[in-house]
Amino acid sequence: MTATELGMPGLTGVPTTDAPQTKKDYTSDQEVRWCPGCGDYAVLATVQGFMPELGLARENVVFVSGIGCSSRFPYYMNTYGMHSIHGRAPAIATGLATSRPDLSVWVVTGDGDALSIGGNHLIHVLRRNVNVTILLFNNRIYGLTKGQYSPTSEQGKITKSTPMGSLDAPFNPVSLALGSEATFVARTIDSDRAHLTSVLRAAAAHRGTSLVEIYQNCNIFNDGAFEILKNRETRDEVLIRLEHGEPVRFGPNGEHGIRRNPATSGLEICSGDDPNVIVHDANAPDPSRAFALSRLADPGTLARTPIGIFRQVDRPTYGDLMNDQVDHAVDTQGSGDLNALIAGRDTWTVE
Amino acid sequence: MTAKEVRELDRVVIRFAGDSGDGMQLTGDRFTAEAATFGNDLSTLPNFPAEIRAPAGTLPGVSSFQLHFADHDILTPGDAPDVLVAMNPAALKANLADVPHGAILIIDSGEFTARALKKIGYATSPLDDGSLTAYQVHAVDLTGMTMKALEPFGLTRKEASRSKNMFALGLLSWMYGRPVDGTVRFLENKFATRANIRDANVTALKAGWNYGETTEDFAVSYEVRPAPMPAGRYRNITGNIALSYGLIAAARQSNLPLFLGSYPITPASDVLHEISKHKRFGVRTFQAEDEIAAIGAALGASFGGSLGITTTSGPGVALKSETIGLAVALELPLVIVDIQRGGPSTGLPTKTEQSDLLQVMFGRNGESPVPVVAAASPADCFDAAVEAVRIAVTYRTPVFLLSDGYLANGSEPWPIPDLGTLPHIDPDFATEPNHRGDDPEAAEFWPYLRDPQTLARPWATPGTAGLEHRIGGLEKADGSGAISYDPTNHDYMVRTRQAKIDNIAGVADLEVDDPTGQARLLVLGWGSTYGPIGAAIRRARRAGHHVAQAHLRHLNPFPANTGEVLRRYDRVLLPEMNLGQLALLLRARYLVDVVSYNQVRGLPFKAEELAEVIMKEVDQL
Ligand SMILES: Cc1ncc(C[n+]2csc(CCOP(=O)(O)OP(=O)(O)O)c2C)c(N)n1
Ligand code: SF4
Ligand SMILES: [Mg+2]
């Protein structure tokens, strides 16, 4: 079966295989070296377990990463991979994905890698809509360099580099992506295997840049950063699960809802049975509603944090457009004649 | 009308100078094209401000184009103009110091208004105050006559005066017996959809020619005969175009799709523009968000089996350095084109310099050797580009290709090469496992198992079944490519990467030109100083001095015989448009007491000046 038949336009053109695959096929022989208990393990296991579902020829899958704990990811995937330099994976993946439409290209990055040193490349890859899937491991800390605050750390964060508390306001990666013209934006959590898998499935299916923010626990330098969203006691009260076409309700029994405040046109909490509870439309062309949803979360406590797919809209990808131009040039002008090119129009002959 | 005298000359240097908006580059280009088709040898030097339209009539706004054409083989755009065409007072003031006494000045007197003179601080008009008596002055109301000629076209004042450059071109074409048919065709093409403008320009061009023919003011015209050149088909070409074609040709020779990642910067942007036009050759061009992304994308494309190229100038190289280091570690083909300009920092964006040599040699962390190839003339940019690609692909390494502002925009006749003579470049992709481990059944792919001859590693691209592997910037174990922090392995890998570059094959021996065999002085150069050094040596030889010349194309690695050549001479003189960067390398490497001659004026060396330096050195021996 081809990717298109699977309903996965994101993988159109990538060779598939009929040979059955298992998680083991996607597991490299390298010893995994994250700290025991690190959230990265859970994500790795989920991704390795999910990939066989796509039925792709494994040699046509590439993972490209930057630098950070999370960016070690490609070494553990038995696919092609590149562990590049800090922040630049989106740029490298852009060259690879646009020149090789037959590849399924994945970018693995951290909150520092993607939003600090690589912030420029992230916004531009989203704007261009290059056909890659970006897994942004957000642990709200610099793991690899041993615990400095990051661009997603809450203000006032006490770390080795900010003993009196960090001063800068954090980025909300989902808001940032939406403001960068992203066509697919989702958020999920390392330990929620089912949810992570469903988001990966949608991200892979999407043709264009898919940004998946993954809340990831760094148990060494920022342990429990997402505990409120994971703990059975608290999570239902604070986590908003977005489902396309479903009313936006949360609370252990759906007792809270989100509605539009007609006075401010912003979103606000209401009762779950309020007739004006909004219905989530991930495909809405206008990103305003998705943006408003992304602003619900409290950047400090993470109360009212939506997870799921915020936005999924169709727009031509940069690579498809680029390759169309090449095809069009060949179709209309014929493939290049090098002799004619270098001679140009004004030549003279010396006898 | 009596037939005017025609005097024969062996060479002429003309400089067209005017406001940035006066179309001097176009005028120069057209005269060049006509001289080229006529069969003269030629060399050109455009010189323009960094500002697109500096205020009109000011000194910083002056743009010029110098053209040297001759009936014999020449090497430079000429030291000093024999003819200066000055379209306004600022153009005269900015260029007069370069014009030797006795030379011809053709001045648009129509622009010498009190206001224009005051703007640049002329208290009196040089046309009247006797300050130009040492020159042959032709004060001609180019503007007024153009307007007059264009009256029937019903153009605005501004539109009509825009054609004065064509009037000037017509006049100069008459003076030097150049045909104008090519320019008429060019105008017809350029303004195909605007008949009125087309006809106005053609009219102005012809009016200029006729003016020369009829006026008493010009009693003589000149003739410069075609230069004897080796038989063949020629075209005129600038360095940036030749470089673009070289890259496209090399991509074809290696059967790789070209991927160019670039971020606009003077004087490199024209390569991006040029290659972007040729998508029918299967090239992909990507204007990135910055230089880092530009090279990143190129490297990503190389990983995928494309020929990754990035083009920039010095400031862009600074931004790319971390990624070049990654390419050194990944051992993937990549060509970084550095079209040098005046530095440091933003420096002199539109002027030339050779001051990035040490940056490209050493501007990275760690032991990070990168081959360096430098073009010597505008047309040579083609061959240099092919050579850079050959090394990059064969040795799986980033390669620097150096050009500079002078080569980029300068032009010369180019014997159009027979593509059959270009080297075949073999990417030799890995297709199969190359190693058997403990389990003899299971063949593996080891991405760092090198070719014993070239020390190049296998290039296995995604999509090749069975060769899945991971590479990265961390140190790798020899052979397997697994991450390794082992001290001995690191020492071995550092030395091996260096040895791979040091032993690049196909770097031809340094050739010495010493016709009498009696020279005790060797003048060595690299890059765009080739022309000026060659012209200077000709002068010195004509004056009876014995001088040897050698020019380096490869700056890393150096040709194997470099040390021996340097030691063969009593003295080695090394002119560079920097403060002695190659000299530093040669002294360190070969312990030879190289004598530097340096200038960083943003302009190429003048042959006459250099000849004096050379003769002084010979005399001192
Ligand atoms: C150019 C450069 N600057 C700094 C570093 C050091 N560095 C490595 S990873 C990192 C931050 C990583 O944080 P993040 O992206 O959040 O990844 P994590 O380790 O948390 O997964 C830094 C500052 C580097 N490798 N390269
Ligand atoms: S430092 Fe944190 S993010 Fe890095 S491996 Fe350890 S637990 Fe994971
Ligand atoms: Mg982090």
Task: Please explain how this structure is put together.
The complex is a heterodimer of chains A (351) and B (621). Chain A has 11 helices and 12 strands. Chain A has 351 residues and is α/β, with parallel strands linked by helices. In chain A, helix 6 links the parallel strand 5 and strand 6. The radius of gyration of chain A is 22 Å and the shape is globular. The N and C termini of chain A lie far apart (64 Å). The relative contact order of chain A is 0.12. Chain B has 621 residues and is of the alpha/beta class. Chain B has 4 domains: 218 residues, 3-Layer(aba) Sandwich (Pyruvate-ferredoxin Oxidoreductase, domain 3), CATH 3.40.920.10; 186 residues, Rossmann fold (3-Layer(aba) Sandwich); 78 residues, no CATH class; 109 residues, Rossmann fold (3-Layer(aba) Sandwich), CATH 3.40.50.920. In chain B, strand 6, helix 3 and strand 7 form a beta-alpha-beta unit. In chain B, helix 4 packs across helix 8 and helix 11 runs parallel beside helix 12. Strand 12 of chain A pairs antiparallel with strand 9 of chain B, so a sheet runs across the interface. Magnesium ion binds next to helix 3 of chain A.
Quick overview of this protein structure:
The complex is a heterodimer of chains A (about 350) and B (about 625). Chain A is an alpha/beta fold and about 350 residues long. Chain A contains eleven helices and twelve strands.
Describe the SSE topology.
The complex is a heterodimer of chains A (351) and B (621).
Chain A: H1 39-54, E1 61-65, E2 80-83, H2 89-99, E3 104-110, H3 111-117, H4 119-128, E4 133-138, H5 173-179, E5 184-189, H6 193-205, E6 210-215, H7 227-230, H8 235-238, E7 239-241, E8 249-250, E9 256-260, E10 267-271, H9 288-294, E11 305-312, H10 318-333, H11 338-343, E12 347-350
Parallel strand pairs in A: 1-2, 1-3, 3-4, 4-6, 5-6, 7-11
Antiparallel strand pairs in A: 5-11, 8-9, 9-10
Chain B: E1 5-9, E2 11-19, H1 24-38, E3 41-47, E4 62-70, E5 83-86, H2 89-95, E6 104-108, H3 114-119, E7 136-140, H4 142-149, H5 157-161, H6 164-175, H7 181-190, H8 195-214, E8 220-224, E9 232-238, H9 239-253, E10 258-262, H10 269-276, E11 284-287, H11 291-303, E12 307-312, H12 314-330, E13 334-340, H13 357-362, E14 372-374, H14 380-395, E15 398-404, H15 405-409, E16 411-415, E17 435-436, E18 443-444, E19 470-472, H16 487-502, E20 521-526, H17 530-542, E21 547-552, E22 554-556, H18 562-568, E23 571-576, H19 581-590, E24 595-598, H20 607-620
Parallel strand pairs in B: 1-8, 2-5, 5-6, 6-7, 10-11, 10-12, 12-13, 13-15, 14-15, 20-21, 20-23, 23-24
Antiparallel strand pairs in B: 2-4, 3-4, 9-16, 14-22, 17-18
The complex binds thiamine diphosphate (TPP), iron/sulfur cluster (SF4) and magnesium ion.
